[in-house]
Automatic annotation (TrEMBL):
PANTHER family in the record: NODULATION PROTEIN U (PTHR34847:SF1)
Naturally occurring in which organism (per UniProt): Georgenia daeguensis
Similarity section: Belongs to the NodU/CmcH family.
Protein's recorded name: Carbamoyltransferase C-terminal domain-containing protein
Ranges of residues in domain Carbamoyltransferase: 2-72, 116-328
Source species taxonomy: Bacteria, Bacillati, Actinomycetota, Actinomycetes, Micrococcales
Carbamoyltransferase C-terminal domain boundaries: 377-546
Amino acid sequence: MRILGVNALFHDPSAALVIDGQIVAAAEEERFSRRKHGKRPVPFAAWELPELSMRWCLKAAGLAPRDLDVVAYSYDPALARPADELGLVDPWDDLRQTYARRAPQFLAAALPGLDPEKVRFVPHHVAHAASGALASPFERSSVLVLDGRGEHASHLSGRYTGGSLEVLATQDLPHSLGLLYESLTEHLGFLRSSDEYKVMALASYGEPRYLEELRETIRATDDGGFQAPIPDWSRWAPARDRDAHLDEQAWRGVHADLACSVQARLEEVLVDLARWLHERTGDRVLTMAGGTALNCVANSRIWRETPFEEVWVQPAAGDAGTALGAALQAAADRGETTAPMPSAALGRQWSDDELASWLRGAAVPFTTPDDLDEQVAEVLAHNGVVAWFDGRSEFGPRALGQRSLLANPGVAANLERLNDVKGREQFRPVAPMVLADHAAEIFSGGPVPSPYMLFVHDVDPLWRDRIPAVVHVDGTARIQTVDPATQPRLGAMIQAFYRRTGLPVVVNTSLNTAGRPMVDDPRDALELFGSAPVDVLVMGPHLVRRSMLFAGADRVHEAAGVAL
């Protein structure tokens, strides 16, 4: 069967295509539209569909809308209840529900030839759960979902056997750990439903001064749910103006302490929920999804402190992943055996010749060296910054070696340097890519391998001075392990860097600048390279040096008779 999954209602609109149980393509709308998160999660935007990513998924498989057997929409309006009945202040939510009910007609208009009768609604948290369990490499697992909200709940605990989900617990709104964290994000002066990862980073600079008070009201319950009333944050720290400069005093003051306290309590409650689930299932494996599953610090505590032997988190754990989950669940419901994700590299790609054509069309001088790995490693060893564009783009918010910005981890100043390049706050960490067979000697306290950068690990004290750029203020790092067998070009380059420096690690951060989506197509890569102080651009097998670029520009102007 040919099944298109669609996420559209709240934020991070996306599309995914599953054919005969195999994941063929998945992409977020922001990578096409260049609008961060695709849209804001307000009712007035609920009608907007991921038209560009839907069309690309179909094009990638050579399909027309009429060829689809099912379109799986990751929200079921029949399960929704009025916002005021749920204890939510959302006076226009009825508009959102109207748009959801009419999704089949909207989809048919966006994809001419699609029969609206082929659209099926998949409950939001079921779509999240499927994106975890059915996309994982495990046939059987417990599954834990936590996010801001779905139709009427914010949480699902259950168990998957094959393609069948047994729901063991849910938590009705208004209690929501996701909405709690979003509210804190807004209070601290960041953009809610967008910047929660900044709060996680800021928490490392604080002390959990308010943890005991938070424990009095935010807690897990005996039925597998939780209580999470949103407190008056101003009792502990004044609201911060989003336009105000966040200086180092704020990092280490009451705002950081509040972030630290809430982060710590979130971790404790998630561990309690996971333990409750294990008591009911006894499973060896836990799979996780929902926006809260992007909290890497909490994920590592679950891995360390619960009886589950393995924890697998969906790389696109936020709402974008529900497009994939909805498609997989629709396939499973129709008796198909679904295959796990081959990797997170499920987006667009270009052939070597196509990339060369882009470079020639932009009049950018480049080489295609046989020893690309050695040349790039040499640049990094001499403290250059490299924009790395290779293969299919990542599905999800993490740069995993397809669209990455790389640097030397042995130079402490590279943390501040990269944050300046990207135009973002200086308390934000950058991450290490490490060769998989060296990870265990440097990092502990989290699972290894860790290919999707979804867990935080402790950095061995003997290595902290050797790779200071990737060590967070609390002595941890959010690692990505790289296996040269599955990422040959990237793996060969890191091996070459290791031979030069003795460091089997490079700095990795996403290939973008602040407020913009991750680079996706060659034009995006060229625009970033032209506007940011990056020394080298790698596009597949091709290499562009900044020195070559400007020398080439001089020759073009000279040939045109332009005085420089």
